[in-house]
Amino acid sequence: MASASLQFFAFILALFGVFGDIAATLLPHWKVNADVGSNIITAITQMQGLWMDCTWYSTGMFSCTLKYSILSLPVYIQAARTTMVLSCILSAFGICITTVGMKCTKLGGDTDSKNHACFAGGVCFILAGISGLVPTCWYTREIISNFLDQTIPESNKHEPGGAVYTGFISAGFLLIAGVIFCSSCFKRQQGAWIYPPKQHHSPATEQESNAGYNLKDYV
Question: Which residues, in sequence order, are bridge partners of residue 53?
Answer without folding.
Answer: 48, 65
